[in-house]
Write a structure and sequence with these properties.
This protein is mainly alpha-helical. 58% of the residues lie in helices and 4% in strands. The protein starts with 5 loop residues before the first helix and ends in a 10-residue tail after the last strand.
């Protein structure tokens, strides 16, 4: 009579429940899993940047003593509202992925348990916090011990932390090589807690857009073209030519008589009082070191004031008239 049966209602509710369309048997692309990790890292950095800007006008170094704890706290907040709620991080949600419980014997999708989510958070934020706080922890432990045992205790703890860090890095490297081989668990913490990425939607095809790549290639090609072209252009001569066109020849000739009197008081390159004044064939004066270094760097040097071709630097010959007071 137009009403749905109880079986149909149960089937509809089951199909609309979260995770009903997840197929853990479909292999996830390795690049999708790595992209999800990069997106999560970028989100954490963005949140930390926004948080640190709130204390921009406070005393410098205010957050430095508590920076490891604050970073861990922000990471736990992100974990609470992403992985704990939806069994998926932000990066995984953007790529239509979510975590599947591999410890379950059922072939169907099973979300992570509360213990797995908590273990994943501790294994992600804990080692990072311990690495950043290791020095201060060693200092506090050595200060609490006696003066005789402080050196041995600090040395032993440092060696232990170094050994644990080396073992962890080697294990992470081996895990990543296994991930490249089998395509599962790109992070060691996921393998320990039994979390595996799976598609949250059936028949998901990775949509690769090349707009960003084309734009980057275009700008890189344009930058390389400019790097190749700019050394071939004599910018000084071009600047002098443009300046002469804009200022006009008539006005230059009218101002020549007034500028002739004070032209020797200013270097044409540095603008300061000429040191060891030299000329290059025109009426402008330059410091010896200025014109010499520019002539060595550019064999086709032209005067930056008038655009005349620069010859060999010659000392300026001036006639000084002594006036009796």
């Amino acid at each position: 009579m137009g009403f749905e049966s109880k079986d149909d209602q149960k089937r509809t509710a089951k199909s609309s429940s979260p995770g009903s369309d997840v197929d853990p048997q479909t292999p996830v692309l390795r690049i999708s899993q790595l992209d999800a990790l990069e997106l999560d890292t970028a989100l954490e950095q963005l949140v930390w940047t926004q948080f640190s800007q709130c204390f921009h006008y406070c005393r410098p170094g205010l957050l430095t003593p508590l920076e490891p704890e604050l970073r861990a706290l922000l990471q736990l907040l992100l974990w609470r509202f992403t992985l704990y709620s939806n069994s998926a991080t932000v990066g995984q949600s953007l790529l239509s992925l979510r975590y599947h419980n591999t410890l379950s014997t059922s072939p169907r999708y099973r979300p992570l348990s509360r213990r797995q989510k908590l273990g994943l958070a501790l294994l992600t934020a804990g080692p990072r916090w311990l690495q950043e706080r290791s020095y201060s922890l060693l200092q506090s432990l050595s200060s609490a011990a006696s003066a005789v045992d402080s050196g041995l205790l600090q040395k032993g703890l440092r060696n232990s932390l170094t050994l644990v860090s080396s073992i962890t890095q080697i294990a992470s490297l081996v895990n990543f090589l296994v991930f490249l081989r089998k395509g599962r668990h790109p992070v060691l913490a996921e393998r320990i807690v039994g979390a595996q990425a799976a598609f949250s939607k059936p028949n998901v095809v990775r949509d690769v857009t090349y707009q960003y790549m084309n734009r980057e290639l275009l700008w890189h090609g344009f930058a390389e073209f400019l790097i190749f072209l700019l050394p071939l252009i004599n910018t000084r001569k071009l600047k002098a030519k443009v300046f002469s066109i804009v200022s006009g020849g008539d006005s230059t000739e009218r101002k020549g008589s007034t500028e002739e009197q004070g032209v020797w008081k200013e270097c044409g390159l540095c603008g300061e009082w000429p040191t060891m004044p030299h000329t290059v064939g025109c009426r402008h004066v330059f410091c010896y070191y200025c014109i010499k270094t520019h002539s060595i760097a550019d064999p086709d040097l032209t005067c930056p004031k008038c655009g005349a071709e620069a010859g060999q630097p010659e000392p300026l010959k001036m006639e000084v008239e002594m006036v009796a007071m």
